Amino acid sequence: MDQQYLVSSDDRERLQHFLSRRQLKDRVVELLKEVKESHDLKRGEVTTSQSATYEALVEALATALANKWVEPDNLTSILDDAETAGRQHICIFKVPEEAADAVIGMLRSPRTLNPETARLSDFWSIPLEPYSRILRDDDAGIVVKTVAPRYYWVEDRRQPSEDRIEITKERERERSAIIFKFDKAVHLLECRVPTREKNPHADTSKSVYQFLAEITASEYVGNAGEQAQTLLGLVGHFDLANAFQKIIENRDDFELHKDTPENQDLKTSMSHRASADDAKDIRDYDEWVYENGFARTSIKGKWKREDDSILVHMHDESVKLGKQVSRQVSRIFFPRPCSDTDIAYVVERVRAHF
Question: I need a surface site. Which of 227, 276, 290, 338 has the fewest CB within 10 A?
């Protein structure tokens, strides 16, 4: 079977899940409209309705691919773009100027570099081990995608009777696409880890960083001087917490929904009970008295733009890696689908508060 075409019902179901999870309806409809216009198709040959279900859109894609009205590369390009953003944990690191060449060298030569063009099945098949593809390498920077299996436990608790509680744990295995983006202009390395499909809100800075460390230890290792070094060993702390105080003071384009102030006498957490869409700025409540004299490890809120806003959770936490080893990790979590442009906007707004 040619994996570039949606032959089996399983393939179509997996693509449907991929498109739905990443909310790609608009992109797919746009592609199908281009197909219809360029081949002068009659009404009904492929659906281009914005109200079409994902199942109907996948059937239309299957028809377009089978008739060669659209090239597989046109579709895989959309899928690649979707994985550079989406719902993501963004671990950000500063790259010292003296380490920039080594970082670029590692990203250009992962252990299992795949130079081939992506096939459709690559976007849902769980690999046995990680493999990487370079998505972009130019004067602005380099973007590499590493696809890897991810394992974690999901706990289920049920109470069949008043006197009995049953707790079961099931090990999940799923495909995870990690994006490594190095920006040469600002010397920042973004490591974008997608949320887990099962119980995504259970992820923490520690679980995200540990998974990221496993991937970099497997794929990105080189020599720094006379010693072998991993990618994460070359980069430094972004120090996101250093921006928190100025962000807290910013009422122009930031709306605060959750705060974790602490000092030598007090440690607390305050958040709005409503959903993110209905939440109000907690700085407007009399109970919020933490503008000055407090540090914090995380804040949550919205960066507001002229026509929309971007919801983010920002964390700067110490991750314990061993009995006496820890690392400070700066992580920005995007709980809703977003674009690469959205991520760049938020990172730039954060940098403006240093």
Answer: 227
Residue with tokens 């072998």: 228
pTM over the 0.90 mark = yes
Tokens 């706990």: give the residue: 155
Q: Which two tokens stand for residue 18?
A: 């991929």
Going residue by residue through the chain (354 aa), what tens digit of pLDDT does each one get?
Answer: 455 677 688 999 999 999 999 999 999 999 999 999 999 988 888 999 999 999 999 999 999 999 999 999 999 999 999 999 989 999 999 999 999 999 999 999 999 999 988 999 999 999 999 999 999 999 999 999 999 999 999 989 999 999 999 999 999 999 999 999 999 999 999 999 999 998 888 899 999 999 999 999 999 997 655 566 899 999 999 999 999 999 999 999 999 999 999 999 999 999 998 999 999 999 999 999 999 999 999 999 999 999 999 999 999 999 998 888 999 999 999 999 999 999 999 999 999 999
CA 159 from chain center: how many Å? 35
End-to-end CA separation in angstroms for the chain: 54
Token pair in block for residue 298: 């995380």
Question: CA–CA distance from 167 to each of 152, 154, 158, 159, 170 (Å)?
Answer: 16, 10, 7, 9, 10
Name the one residue in this structure whose structure tokens are 């971007």: 310
225: left (phi over 0), alpha (psi -120 to 50) or beta: left
- Nearest partner of 83 among 132, 32, 50, judged by Cα: 132
Residue 46 bridge partners (DSSP):
none
Q: How far apart are CA 44 and CA 55, in angstroms?
A: 15
Token duo for residue 50: 């914005």
3-state secondary structure of 83: helix
